[in-house]
Amino acid sequence: MTPAGESIYRDAKFLFEYSRRSIESARKAADIDSRTFHVGTSLLNPAKPFMDLWCQVSAEFPDYRLHLVPFEDNHEGILSEISQLGEKFDFLIGVCDSKLWLDRCNMLPLGRYKKMVAVSKEHPLAGRSRIEIEDLYGETLMMVKRGDSDTNDSIRKDLETFHPQIQIEDTPQFYDISVFNRCSETGKVLLTLDCWTEVHPALVSIPVNWDYSIPYGLLYSLTPTQDVRRFVNTAAENQKIEGTAHLSHRHGASVR
């Protein structure tokens, strides 16, 4: 072999070995990614309830890891985020009986959050540890507009029928931080949830003597992967064992 040939041979051996290692690294990376659950998280839809669920069922997924994917609670863009379940992330925990949301995803119910009200720290009700509905007479209550949430529509109907002394003001269909800012800046009352007590530092959340609540659960794609289906089924069985909600879907009781 000539010196030139030896040089080409050495370089060729290096290239073949480098190519082999690159392919092996890519395969390992793909394998790791396939064993990663991507979980959406935001200010109003934090991942902590998912982490609690994960602690209960993670023994069934010893080779899997979690990756948190932040997203914005933008009332104009939230439906786009929900539509990306299965692409941008595999799961998120959401407060949800929204028809618009549930047209775009599956949901495994996990529980319910109590409805509360939030007021600015300067509001006359801010110092109260609990209030009656009658304490809201003369106030303006901000809540999502009618038509998408059966729970909120039922609350609105009750208030309009039995407590017309409470003025209702529509907010966008889905809350974002701008809604909480408006409550703080205007001195109005905001219909909120017990899971959102720390969302806005200038607001105080107060329990009300009523029985209103809304479901929350594990949201996932309408066309879940095999790994996602297995996780949902495992979580559903765990919920069943604990005597809580079993697997639910807007069209039935099986995971698609």
TrEMBL record:
One cellular-component annotation, GO: protein-DNA complex
Name by which UniProt lists this protein: LysR substrate-binding domain-containing protein
SUPFAM superfamilies linked to this entry: Periplasmic binding protein-like II (SSF53850)
Organism this protein belongs to: Blautia hydrogenotrophica (strain DSM 10507 / JCM 14656 / S5a33) (Ruminococcus hydrogenotrophicus)
Family recorded in the similarity comment: Belongs to the LysR transcriptional regulatory family.
Entry keyword set: DNA-binding, Transcription, Transcription regulation
Signal sequence bounds: none
Keyword Transcription regulation assigned: yes
GO MF, any single term: DNA-binding transcription factor activity
Domain LysR substrate-binding: 89-162
